[in-house]
Amino acid sequence: MKIALVAPTHMPSRRANTLQVMKMAQAFTCLGHTVRVAVPGIVAQPVPWDELAHLYGLRARFPVEWLPSLSLLRRYDYGLRSVRWAQRWNADLLYTRLPQAAAIASAIGLATVLEVHDLPSGAMGAWLFRRFLRGGGRRRLVAITHALANDLTEKLGAPMERTESARALAAVGAATPGFTVVAPDAVDLERYADLPNPEQARQLLGGADIPVTIPPDRFTAGYTGHLYAGRGINMILEMARRLPEVAFLLVGGEPEEVIRLRETTPSRGLANVHSTGFVPNAELPRYHAACDAFLMPYQRRVAASSGGDIARYLSPMKLFEYMACGRPILCSDLPVLREVLNPENSVLLPPEDVGAWVAALEALRGDPSRRSALEARTLSEVKNYTWERRAERILDGLDVRLEKNF
User: Fold this and answer.
1) Strands 347-349 and 273-277
2) Are residues 208 and 279 part of one domain?
3) Nearest to 106 by CA among 130, 89, 71, 85
4) How many other CB atoms sit within 10 Å of the CB of residue 150?
5) Are residues 16 and 88 part of one domain?
């Protein structure tokens, strides 16, 4: 199948949505489909593939094309151009997270899959979503979580012929999904095979390209990702203050956020906090490997790169990377995260109770058998959350419906 994948924002970029788009493009390619990716904006010269592959941690190659887009037109011009681009290529399917492209493509009968990570906002957001639903080209709606799928139905009238849960999505031999599929994010599992143990991995830190040094025998709690409000960074710093014998490894963040963090930790006497700044996805596994446990202290309000609150619909990619690494996860007990996590595969904690987090981390540090049990459970379950399995399930049954009527 020829799949035209329309990215919602420019790249290369550190935004999570561009990483997710490139991982899906790779997954479709690995499944044997022919994929082209459209990106908004003009670049002075094509971005070298090696640069994209390193930034996004890619092993399969596919074409990426940049299409003109004026910021004043709020992606409507790009949405139209991307649909025409897909038509010229004679694509079988347009796959996108951009509602403008989905609405136009569906309206003209081009087979379209729309993936949604947040409830469409404002009058135009709702209109575009409903226009996609009314169009003759609609083929499938992909929601990142059950919470989002339910709200899309209750608030915007998305059909729910049959919604596949995250666990049904992962189950071998599950029935062909209906119009709406609930598909959490995923991980490149093969990149986490044969990782060194934490002590060995920490010995590899501190090289010229790794700006942190942690003693190999130091128990280390890790966090990767952006440092936006609601991610619990202040809680991690307070945990570090109360647990000076534990190292805290923070990987990621925009430059200005990392500068603020590095200015804050010395003044608070937090010599056990180690911040690397942004790390390309291709290099993340070796940082993950250096950790004995992972932290996801999301608060009840979580800021996205756009500034909006995404706490109700979270499906963080870091969760599946943590699981793939086979280390215990301490996570805020938010309803949406229980779609994947539970007390058997993680330690769920009150989002604002730093004392509970400190006690839980201390208990894990002193209980290797408990850590081993959690590790075994996450490694068993993460096999169901690969990008290829996600892509396969989303496309399941669509090939028989792809009748070009445009």
Assistant:
1) unpaired
2) yes
3) 130
4) 16
5) yes
Whether residue 12 is preceded by a cis peptide bond, meaning omega within 30 degrees of 0, is yes
Boundaries of domain holding 115:
2-186+387-401
Number of domains in the chain: 2
Summarised one tens digit per residue, pLDDT across range 264-316 is 898 889 999 999 999 999 999 999 999 999 999 999 887 665 556 678 899 99
Q: Which two tokens stand for residue 60?
A: 């399969």
- Taking residue 45's Cβ as centre, other Cβ atoms within 10 Å add up to 5
Spatial distance between the Cα atoms of 361 and 275, rounded to a whole number of angstroms? 19
Helix spans in 135-254 (H): 146-156, 166-170, 198-203, 233-242
Q: Residue 187 forms beta bridges with which residues?
A: 386
CB within 8 A of 39, min separation 6: which ones? 7, 10, 11, 64, 65, 66, 67
CA-angle at 286, arms to 50 and 321, nearest 5°: 90
Centre a 10 Å sphere on the Cβ of residue 300 and count the other Cβ atoms it contains. Answer: 12
Q: Are residues 175 and 197 in the same domain?
A: no
Q: What is the pLDDT of residues 163-175, one digit of tens each?
A: 444 454 444 445 5
DSSP, residue by residue, 204-236: TTTSTT------TTS-EEEEES---TTS-HHHH
Side chain identity at residue 68, one-letter code: P
